[in-house]
Write a structure and sequence with these properties.
Bound molecules: the ligand Nc1nc2c(c(=O)[nH]1)N[C@@H](CN(C=O)c1ccc(C(=O)N[C@@H](CCC(=O)O)C(=O)O)cc1)CN2, glycinamide ribonucleotide
Structural class: alpha/beta
Helix content: 25-40%
Number of domains: 2
CATH architecture of the largest domain: 3-Layer(aba) Sandwich
CATH superfamily of the largest domain: Formyl transferase, N-terminal domain
EC number: 2.1.2.2
Organism: Sessilibacter corallicola
Strand order of the largest sheet: 3-2-1-4-5-6-7-11
Number of helices: 6
Order of helices and strands: EHEHEHEHEHEEHEEEE
Function: Catalyzes the transfer of a formyl group from 10-formyltetrahydrofolate to 5-phospho-ribosyl-glycinamide (GAR), producing 5-phospho-ribosyl-N-formylglycinamide (FGAR) and tetrahydrofolate.
Radius of gyration: 17 Å
Family: Belongs to the GART family.
CATH topology of the largest domain: Rossmann fold
Shape: globular
Catalytic activity: N(1)-(5-phospho-beta-D-ribosyl)glycinamide + (6R)-10-formyltetrahydrofolate = N(2)-formyl-N(1)-(5-phospho-beta-D-ribosyl)glycinamide + (6S)-5,6,7,8-tetrahydrofolate + H(+)
Number of strands: 11
Distance between the termini: 32 Å
Length: 217
């Protein structure tokens, strides 16, 4: 915590940064007792970097293509993150699979937002996969990050109906609106010391959340 008792947060992005913006808005409104110490992107010239700059948040670009291995990229990323001494690392549309060394280093203090009702549809292209499967519902999950891709303990989920004429784009837009609610809420719970991870279990106020987490209606 810094002198004004705000939780230091570092946010990792790869693109638009609308989830980053939702967290920035919560910080600026006073709803979230946090200070975003840095935003780090693996891609240059993305809108998320503009959003950070507009909020006077320091930014870094660490291009994964400039490293000889995933491990080398992750080590540079860790060194940059740790300069800011965050209590929480937030993956907000960060599109790189992280090594076990990296995820272990931040275990219990790194969260990700994933556009599916985990454990369904880990990985990419989740909206189209849900439509192709004929699912009646889809949604988003916030989870602690572990070495298992999108397999960490789920904290909170939001569910949306899949309509008859749904496309991946329309479904993504519906889900994104709920992402912008459940992600800041998760950050707030963590900043208020209400959210913890024990073993492979997320706890809210000391009570274990079930495998689908807190259901956001
Ligand atoms: N070890 C972990 N790493 C990451 C996790 C995690 O839970 N454990 N969450 C992801 C976020 N994510 C989905 O929510 C995700 C991100 C990226 C990929 C992926 O396949 N990336 C490819 C490149 C894809 C691209 O550049 O478009 C890759 O890294 O080779 C899958 C899921 C963040 N990391
Ligand atoms: N596998 C990770 C993944 O697909 N994450 C998804 O990327 C989008 C980022 O949007 P944003 O940059 O506007 O926050 C969000 O929908 C998030 O769930």
């Amino acid at each position: 915590m810094n002198s004004t008792n705000l939780m230091s947060v570092v946010v990792l992005i790869s693109g638009s940064g609308s989830n980053l913006q939702a967290i920035i808005d919560g910080m600026q409104s006073g709803q979230l007792p946090i200070q975003i110490s840095a935003v780090i992107s693996n891609k240059a010239d993305v809108k998320g970097l503009e959003r950070a700059a507009n909020a006077s948040i320091p930014t870094h670009v660490i291009n994964h293509k400039e490293f000889s291995s995933r491990e080398a990229f992750d080590r540079e990323l860790m060194a940059t993150i740790d300069q800011h001494k965050p209590q929480l690392v937030v993956l907000a549309g960060f599109m790189r699979i992280l090594t076990e060394e990296f995820t272990n280093h931040y275990l219990g203090r790194m969260i990700n937002i994933h556009p599916s009702l985990l454990p369904k549809y880990q990985g990419l292209h989740t909206h189209q996969r849900a439509i192709d499967a004929g699912d009646s519902h889809h949604g988003a999950s916030v989870h602690f990050v572990t070495a298992e891709l999108d397999g960490g303990p789920v904290i909170v989920q939001a569910k949306v109906a899949i309509d008859d004429q749904e496309t991946a784009d329309t479904l993504a837009a519906k889900v994104l609106k709920f992402e912008h609610q459940i992600f800041p809420q998760t950050v707030q719970w963590f900043a208020e010391h209400r959210l913890t991870m024990e073993g492979n279990q997320a706890l809210l106020d000391g009570k274990p959340l079930d495998k689908t987490g807190f259901q956001w209606n």
